[in-house]
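Subject: Interface between my chains keeps coming out wrong

I've been trying for a while to get a sensible model of this assembly. When I model each chain on its own everything looks fine, but I need the whole thing in one frame so I can look at the contacts. Pasting all components below, labels as-is. Any help appreciated, I'm running out of ideas.
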Amino acid sequence: MTVRLTRKYGFAASHRLHSPALSDEENRRTYGKCDNPHGHGHNYEVELTVAGVVDAVTGRAANLEALDALARRVILEPFHHRNLNEEVAAFRTEVPTTENLTVEVERRVRAGWTEEIGARLEKIRIRETDRNICELSV
Amino acid sequence: MLISKKIEFAASHICRSAQLSDAENERVYGAAANPLGHGHNYVVEVAIEGEPDRVTGMILDLKQLKDILEERVMDVYDHRLLNREVTPFDKVVPTVENIAIDIWNRIEGHIPGARLYSVRVHETNELCVEYRGEK
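Reply #2:
Try treating it as a single job with all components included. I did that and got this:
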């Protein structure tokens, strides 16, 4: 039987939403307070949803230890207590909006995926604040 | 259209399989393999699929759904040791995956006039499973 299992992780990071392709006025209009040149931060929550068949012996649909190890390696270690614009290569060129962050996390999770997890990645959700959530189906 | 109802129960469980060695149980389930057991406040969301009735404007009578969940889930699961007191957990490990499947099996076919769409079980704030009846 196939179930969808969702595991939640958290990291705290800072960012600034500012595009070099836009004028200062356009940046202010597009990003508002998030364009503050000094940056600001969030407690991000990342939800990884995997689809897997429940093993008859263990009753588990995925190897949570392997999934947690992947999340630590590709999301938490590179992002926790970091300045996303300065310390994550992708955000030297892309604006670290929740949308772009979700795409970047999906890219990293897919690249680092291992057989050992024993399930298929189905969805990624990132909660920047309680009112701002981005979801990507894989 | 989907409508969801949420219930919460508290229960204890032991995640160990008789078919695995002690070392394998520790590796697969970690701290949850403690033979003395531990517990959670489980949150269950049951989603029902249907169309609103032209007269009542409702997909189904939520009081009726509440009674079904009380009788078929709460009375069975709340304040129990799942391994000892709830079938099928004398035979299968009460992981959150198997709990979602069991709750589906207990309520499917008992909701008049609407189709059961999914059962979601949150074991902790960090771990949730959804089952939609796929065999």
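Reply #3:
Confirming on my end. The CA atoms of residues 10 and 45 of chain A lie 4 Å apart.
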